[in-house]
């Protein structure tokens, strides 16, 4: 099924601003479908005298008319074609027409020219299933009247509003959440039951209809938190905007849509949604996030304490193998602490490992270099890494760099680290190369008979499902290559 953007690219003579106008309409027209209890179909000219469906919306407040999506379909019905032609010839919504279809169902259909700056860009058709004959409720009558106002604004080029918050963003109020109709003074002409309930939960106990909405909201008891600067504009219906309010132990999100006639504001609708539970969950998530970061911070502090104790103990031993072993342990604990420090200062559940590699690499070069000068360069990117993998990777890189400084370039030289991530056979593979310009591998070098650091590296690489190789560099020196199979970061897995 083609997207609206793909279909719009086939429509001739559309300016970029006109394309954006049509996107804004479709982004926000679900509220129109809900108010009109109708299927909405956007017809676009195909450049050959015909029409093609660019978008299709169904109501969430009533029965749908078209079960199958119409996107990409051509206009073939003679009755509907005459309705579309009538809309193109005029500058206002057409009169509704009754159309009988199968199973004794009757449709009410009308068409509206979608205009901007006096030019018709498309045609919007509304299809309403009348169902069984019955008297409409007051809610249905008020919703239908608002829908008529919005359709007239579409024909006049007054809706959608440029720069207005549109679409189904998190917490955005919808028609089913609550609708309030305001007059030009900001007084409530109609409030749906859900809207009244939401205001009641904010602490207002008096009447809502007939009252000025701005006064109702400003008079809420125990108004909590900061006052949204756009709240006054929204409650008066003076601007197409959205604001939140917290009072009486509850929270609500309000969105205003001014209603215009010939460019003059004659009132507004305010969509109102109770978001108390949503805010409670957000506060819980924030609290949990802060708790997790505090845990990471304390783990980092504890590791640094362990490193300090080992350092003190090494000084008491004096020079020798025991002191060397403790110094190596201090370095390894410090590397793990660096990972937890990164976790404690960020808002993600993953580690930006490029930062860990850069900071850890500089620290190892500063501490391990005794003579000469070592230049460390990092190319490529490690990317985001899960904490359980970050600790192993940090230790592997630390050991390899330490060996390169001590055995590869003890008198100074250059060390190059290159990291590459790729997807191979559906798996996230990290490949790292550490190369120095020193004397190269010693004669008869075998990793299985090397020191503790080399055995640690080999074991951790195997735990990550990868491989490691030591080899002579192309221009001399030593090159260590290792790979790791990484699981998808938690943030990416949820998105």
UniProtKB/TrEMBL annotation:
Q: Which Pfam families match?
A: GAF_PdtaS (PF12282), HATPase_c (PF02518), HisKA_2 (PF07568)
Which InterPro entries does the UniProt entry name for this protein?
A: H_kinase_PdtaS_GAF_sf, HATPase_C_sf, HATPase_dom, His_kinase_dom, PdtaS_GAF, Sig_transdc_His_kin_sub2_dim/P
Catalytic class of the enzyme: transferase
Give EC number(s), comma-separated. Answer: 2.7.13.3
**Top-rank taxon:** Bacteria
According to its UniProt record, which reaction does this protein catalyse? ATP + protein L-histidine = ADP + protein N-phospho-L-histidine
Which residues belong to any copy of the Histidine kinase domain?
393-488
UniProt keyword terms in alphabetical order:
ATP-binding, Kinase, Nucleotide-binding, Phosphoprotein, Transferase
Q: Name one GO molecular function term.
A: ATP binding
What protein is this chain from?
Answer: histidine kinase
**Upper classification of the organism:** Bacteria, Bacillati, Actinomycetota, Actinomycetes, Micrococcales
């Amino acid at each position: 099924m083609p997207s609206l953007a793909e279909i719009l690219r086939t429509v001739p003579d559309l300016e970029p601003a006109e394309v954006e106008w049509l996107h804004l309409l479709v982004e926000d027209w679900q509220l129109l479908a809900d108010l009109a209890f109708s299927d909405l179909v956007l017809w676009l000219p195909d450049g050959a005298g015909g029409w093609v469906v660019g978008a299709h919306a169904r109501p969430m407040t009533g029965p749908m008319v078209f079960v199958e999506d119409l996107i990409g379909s051509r206009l073939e019905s003679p009755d509907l074609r005459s309705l579309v032609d009538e809309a193109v010839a005029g500058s206002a919504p057409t009169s509704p027409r009754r159309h009988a279809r199968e199973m004794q169902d009757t449709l009410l259909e009308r068409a509206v020219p979608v205009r901007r700056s006096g030019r018709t860009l498309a045609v919007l058709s509304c299809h309403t299933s009348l169902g069984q004959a019955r008297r409409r409720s007051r809610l249905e009558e008020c919703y239908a009247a608002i829908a008529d106002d919005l359709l007239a604004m579409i024909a006049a080029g007054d809706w959608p509003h440029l720069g207005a918050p549109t679409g189904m963003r998190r917490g955005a109020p919808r028609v089913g959440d609550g609708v309030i109709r305001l007059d030009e003074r900001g007084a409530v002409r109609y409030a749906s039951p859900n809207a009244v309930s939401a205001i009641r939960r904010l602490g207002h106990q008096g009447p809502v209809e007939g009252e000025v909405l701005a006064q109702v909201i400003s008079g809420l008891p125990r108004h909590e938190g900061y006052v949204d600067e756009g709240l006054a504009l929204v409650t008066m219906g003076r601007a197409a905007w959205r604001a939140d309010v917290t009072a009486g132990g509850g929270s609500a999100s309000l969105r205003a849509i001014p209603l215009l006639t010939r460019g003059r504001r004659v009132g507004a609708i305010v969509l109102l949604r109770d978001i108390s539970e949503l805010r409670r969950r957000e506060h819980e998530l924030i609290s949990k996030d802060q708790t997790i970061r505090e845990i990471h911070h304390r783990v980092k502090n504890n590791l640094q304490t362990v490193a300090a104790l080992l350092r003190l103990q090494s000084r008491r031993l004096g020079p020798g193998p025991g002191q060397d072993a403790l110094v190596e342990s201090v370095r390894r604990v410090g590397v793990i602490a660096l990972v937890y420090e990164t976790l404690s200062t960020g808002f993600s559940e993953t580690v930006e490992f490029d930062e860990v590699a850069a900071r850890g690499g500089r620290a190892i070069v500063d501490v391990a270099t005794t003579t000469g000068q070592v230049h460390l360069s990092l190319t490529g990117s490690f990317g985001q890494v899960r904490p359980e993998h970050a600790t192993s990777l940090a230790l592997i890189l630390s050991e390899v760099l330490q060996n390169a400084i001590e055995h590869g370039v003890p008198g100074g030289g250059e060390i190059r680290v290159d990291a590459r991530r790729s997807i191979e056979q559906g798996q996230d593979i990290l490949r790292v190369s550490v190369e120095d310009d020193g004397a190269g591998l010693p004669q008869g070098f075998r990793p299985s008979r090397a020191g503790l650091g080399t055995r640690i590296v080999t074991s951790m690489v195997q735990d990550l499902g990868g491989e490691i190789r030591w080899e002579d560099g192309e221009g001399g020196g030593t090159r260590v290559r290792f790979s790791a199979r990484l699981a998808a970061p938690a943030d990416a897995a949820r998105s």
